[in-house]
């Protein structure tokens, strides 16, 4: 093998080693952030459970109960809240979510509210109407942002701009499994069971000024908590997907370096053998 080709192999080995250092660092960073993101997602569950139980009690405890948030919308337009990532290098995290959203929204007249830069790029590419891009960076979304999103969605729903509101996000199942999911946000039809769950005497709860007003005040708070929880689960899923992807990339780089080193050593031995053969042949000439 020519010396120039051997030099090219050495440069290739050095390049792959540098890439492996980057993927290893990204793997460690994602793993360190993942635990905190999962803890934040778990911390939202008691809040959501309490609000959901309260809304269920109000809805089922009043026979003449009516709320604009529980009524079926007459408008056939759908609003999709899409929670994706801000960056790539996370395996199929974003692609799987968008594929799932396409299947969910097929045949529907939709408008989207993107959370995440990748979601904005995808919706622009598909030319899907966007409600607002104010919350385009999912990594910087705070609790107050989620309350603002909920108030915006509730206002649009009350005005009749949308008859249904759906949220697509990626649920964190485990370190190796992140599954896209769709959650119906409005109308809140699942709070009315249609039957009295408790027979016999019941505790009478008085709400001020009335139960409908309290329900209408709590509903946006519940939706805000649902958005915040989904954002944190999506962030945890993205970090887990990135950690897995970078781990796989690091393993592939190590295997590539091993193959290149073996190829280089064989070429070097062949070059040395050829040089010795030429020296011996030259010495034997008269």
Provide a descriptive summary of the structure in words:
α5 packs across α6. With 286 residues, this protein is of the alpha/beta class. α3 links the parallel β1 (77-83) and β2 (109-115). The protein starts with a helix and ends with a helix. It has helices spanning 3-43, 45-60, 93-105, 117-126, 143-158, 211-284, and strands at 77-83, 109-115, 164-174, 177-186. 59% of the residues lie in helices and 12% in strands.
Q: What is the annotated CATH architecture of the largest domain? A: 3-Layer(aba) Sandwich
Backbone CA Rg: 29 Å
CATH superfamily of the largest domain, by name, is ATP synthase, F1 complex, gamma subunit
What fold name goes in the CATH topology slot of the largest domain? Pyruvate Kinase, Chain: A, domain 1
Number of domains: 2
Structural class: alpha/beta
Binned, the helix content reads 55-70%
Instruction: Tell me the number of strands.
Output: 4
Shape call = elongated
Sheet with most strands: 4 strands, mixed
Distance between the termini: 29 Å
H/E series: HHEHEHHEEH
Short description:
With 286 residues, this protein is an alpha/beta fold. It has 6 helices and 4 strands.
Q: What are the defining features of this structure?
A:
elongated; Pyruvate Kinase, Chain: A, domain 1; alpha/beta; four-stranded mixed β-sheet; Helix Hairpins; 286 residues; 2 domains
């Amino acid at each position: 093998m020519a010396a120039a080709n051997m030099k090219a192999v050495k440069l290739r080995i050095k390049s792959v080693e540098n890439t492996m250092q980057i993927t290893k660092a990204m793997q460690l960073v994602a793993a360190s952030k993942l635990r905190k993101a999962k803890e934040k997602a778990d911390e939202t569950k008691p809040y959501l459970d309490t609000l959901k139980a309260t809304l269920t009690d109000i809805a089922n405890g009043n026979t003449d109960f009516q709320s604009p948030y529980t009524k079926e919308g007459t408008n056939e337009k759908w609003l999709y809240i899409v929670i994706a990532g801000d960056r790539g290098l996370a395996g199929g995290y974003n692609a799987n979510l968008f594929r799932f959203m396409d299947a969910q929204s097929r045949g529907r007249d939709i408008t989207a509210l993107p959370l995440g830069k990748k979601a904005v790029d995808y919706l622009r590419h598909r030319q899907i109407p966007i409600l607002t891009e104010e919350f385009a960076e999912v990594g910087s979304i705070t609790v107050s942002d989620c309350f603002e999103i909920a108030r915006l969605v509730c206002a649009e729903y009350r005005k009749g701009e949308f008859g249904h509101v759906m949220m697509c996000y990626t649920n964190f199942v485990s370190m190796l499994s992140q599954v896209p999911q769709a959650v119906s946000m409005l109308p809140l039809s699942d709070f009315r069971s249609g039957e009295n769950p408790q027979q016999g005497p019941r505790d009478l709860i008085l709400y001020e000024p009335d139960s409908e007003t309290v329900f209408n005040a709590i509903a946006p708070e519940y939706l805000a908590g649902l958005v915040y929880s989904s954002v944190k689960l999506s962030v945890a899923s993205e970090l887990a997907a990135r950690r897995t992807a970078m781990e796989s990339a690091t393993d592939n780089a190590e295997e590539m370096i091993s193959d290149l080193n073996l190829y280089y050593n064989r070429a070097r031995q062949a070059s040395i053998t050829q040089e010795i053969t030429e020296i011996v042949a030259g010495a034997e000439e008269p």
